[in-house]
């Protein structure tokens, strides 16, 4: 059995590299040797089984003893005269190829002297792994051959050895092997050769220098670009380092470790960039809300910013674990169960939180608005994340949970563009029809002429014969949204209505069952005559205006009254 090391299995590469970093690699090999120390080996190089034969070659290669490593190669295809010189060269070249292309899983190799009988290969051949080349896969075999005394042992197959020069031409060190002394290739630490350590230092220095240079240019583009220089510098440096490491021909586990590290740093850089973008967007939104006088929404923006940062960081952590080969399904399941438990425990808090978000987003009321909620009236002082505080008319502060407040029917008086003037007056039953007509015309003239009354609609109407009065309904809108100003206009209109009712010669009716005897002055005959005469003149001139008035009449009356009235302290 064989295993091709793949760079996507980042956890295996990182684990192996870390073990080598603390010297566990040699300990692992030593432990495996000690495990079989009690087993007898007929061959002094322990080539009796495929696993120990391959282990012996790798250990000799790591130690730089290529003369010993050549003893594990089947050199039958090499002329006997050149085997002593050619063998170590082939062993060294094969080790370089395996370092770059194939990480041998010794545990997958057979411990039986006969090899693996179930791999589908001939009885005396086992597969170590496969090297992927530009021209196709090249298998690496172990063959069971006989040594000089006829005893069967395992060696790297001659078919594989014959392909070593071609493989080395593709995966070897190239011109470096010709110009650099052998010490640069033979001295290694943590599976990294001396020339590769020098190359790593050069790649790191170059990546850092170029990333600082690039971000210095980007930072000149504006404040938003300057806030992103940190994550961009890291992202550029990681990208340059990743490009540089692939030119160093690192061993498979080392390259896998760096690949996992680069992915993790790239995720960190992207997450850092997203967090900076969230901060920039949140600051812009807060500035806009303050400019629109929506300061109560700033707290929601701050909460949203923190939530998005936590979410981005959590996703980044899961991505890093996934790239390291850790199955995050269990982590996600645990988070889901934990989130459900938290949601159930904090149900009311979450409900109030979403209620606050609804109030701030929909804005049925804002801070400073005068409103009615339920059976209370007051001014909104604060819309918080959990509750809304309202100062009532008796100057107390009521705190209502946002979930309950957002579910109420809210009547926002501050949103009114006009205020409703609606009154019903009752005239005495002694009022004559012409007197009633006079009152209606004068009321219409009053509403049309008043500069604070909106002309549409502004109507007085005789609406009924009441139990003790002739009822007139006055319906109009005062052009203001300030309640104090509305009260002043309403007061002025009511006083003028009293004046014109008195001028018509009639009076207000009032419900009463008091029985009294006495002289009654009755109605004013002169005022009655004048009102009736005026109505006759309107009728004769076809200008009575009931039930509707002509546009030119309304235009002639509109805005001619003084308001505030003459004699008022604020009259111009």
Fold topology:
Layout: H1 10-21, H2 24-35, H3 50-62, H4 66-69, H5 83-101, E1 125-133, E2 136-146, E3 152-156, H6 158-161, H7 164-171, H8 176-179, H9 183-186, E4 188-189, E5 192-193, H10 194-218, H11 223-227, H12 229-245, H13 252-291, H14 298-323, H15 329-345, H16 347-362, E6 370-373, E7 376-383, E8 387-392, E9 397-401, H17 402-407, E10 410-412, E11 419-427, H18 433-449, E12 453-465, E13 470-478, H19 483-503, H20 525-540, H21 551-557
Antiparallel strand pairs: 1-2, 2-3, 4-5, 6-7, 6-10, 7-8, 8-9, 11-13, 12-13
Helix pairs in contact: 1-13, 5-7, 10-12, 12-13, 13-14, 18-19, 18-20
Task: Work out the radius of gyration.
Answer: 49 Å
Mean pLDDT: 79
Largest β sheet strand count, sense and barrel closure:
5 strands, antiparallel
DSSP strand count: 13
Report on this model:
Helices cover 51% and strands 15% of the residues. The strands form 4 sheets. It has a 5-stranded antiparallel beta sheet. Strands 1-2-3 form a 3-stranded antiparallel beta sheet. The protein is of the alpha+beta class.
Give descriptors for this structure:
single chain; 572 residues; alpha+beta; three-stranded antiparallel β-sheet; 21 helices
């Amino acid at each position: 059995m064989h295993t091709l090391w793949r760079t996507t299995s980042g956890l295996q590469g990182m684990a192996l590299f870390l073990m080598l970093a603390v010297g566990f690699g040699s300990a692992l090999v030593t432990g495996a040797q000690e495990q079989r120390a009690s087993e007898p080996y007929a061959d002094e190089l322990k080539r009796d089984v495929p696993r120990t034969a391959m282990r012996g070659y790798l250990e000799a290669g790591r130690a730089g003893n290529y003369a010993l490593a050549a003893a594990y190669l089947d050199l039958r295809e090499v002329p006997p005269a050149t085997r002593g010189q050619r063998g170590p060269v082939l062993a060294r070249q094969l080790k370089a190829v395996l370092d770059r292309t194939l990480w041998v899983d010794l545990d997958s190799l057979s411990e039986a002297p006969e090899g693996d009988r179930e791999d589908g290969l001939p009885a005396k051949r086992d597969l170590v792994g496969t090297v992927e080349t530009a021209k196709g896969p090249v298998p690496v075999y172990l063959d069971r051959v006989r040594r000089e005394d006829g005893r069967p042992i395992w060696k790297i197959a001659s078919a594989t050895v014959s392909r070593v020069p071609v493989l080395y031409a593709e995966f070897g060190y190239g011109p470096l092997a010709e110009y650099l002394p052998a010490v640069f290739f033979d001295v290694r630490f943590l599976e990294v050769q001396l020339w590769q350590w020098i190359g790593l230092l050069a790649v790191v220095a170059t990546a850092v220098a170029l990333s600082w240079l690039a971000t210095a240019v980007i930072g000149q583009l504006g404040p938003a670009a300057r806030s992103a220089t940190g994550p961009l510098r890291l992202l550029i440096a990681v990208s340059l380092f990743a490009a540089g490491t692939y030119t160093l021909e690192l061993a498979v586990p080392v390259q896998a470790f760096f690949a996992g590290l680069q992915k993790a740093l790239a995720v960190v850089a992207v997450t850092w960039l997203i967090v900076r973008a969230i901060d920039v967007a949140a600051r812009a939104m807060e500035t806009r809300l303050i400019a629109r006088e929506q300061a109560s929404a700033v707290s929601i923006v701050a909460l949203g910013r923190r939530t998005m940062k936590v979410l981005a960081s959590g996703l980044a952590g899961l991505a890093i674990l996934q790239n390291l080969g850790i199955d995050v399904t269990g982590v996600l399941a645990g988070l889901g169960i934990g989130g459900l438990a938290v949601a159930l425990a904090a149900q009311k808090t979450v409900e109030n939180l979403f209620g606050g978000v609804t109030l701030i987003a929909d804005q049925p009321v804002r801070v400073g608005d005068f409103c009615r909620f339920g059976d209370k009236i007051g001014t909104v002082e604060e819309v918080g994340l959990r509750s809304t505080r309202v100062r009532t008319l008796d100057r107390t502060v009521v705190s209502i949970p946002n979930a309950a407040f957002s579910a109420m029917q809210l009547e926002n008086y501050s949103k009114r563009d006009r205020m409703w003037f609606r009154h019903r007056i009752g005239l005495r039953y002694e009022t004559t029809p012409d007197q009633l007509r006079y009152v209606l015309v004068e009321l219409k003239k009053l509403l049309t002429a008043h500069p604070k009354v909106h002309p549409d609609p502004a109507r007085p109407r005789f609406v009924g014969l009441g139990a003790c009065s002739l009822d007139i309904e006055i319906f109009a809108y005062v052009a203001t949204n300030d309640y104090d100003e509305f009260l002043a206009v309403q007061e002025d209109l009511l006083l003028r209505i009293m004046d014109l009712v008195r001028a018509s010669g009639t009076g207000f009716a009032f419900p009463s069952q008091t029985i009294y005897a006495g002289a009654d002055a009755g109605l004013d005959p002169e005022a009655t005559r004048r009102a009736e005469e005026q109505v006759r003149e309107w009728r004769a001139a076809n200008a009575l205006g009931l039930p509707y008035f002509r546009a030119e009449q309304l235009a002639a009356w509109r805005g001619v009254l003084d308001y505030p009235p003459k004699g008022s302290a604020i009259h111009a």
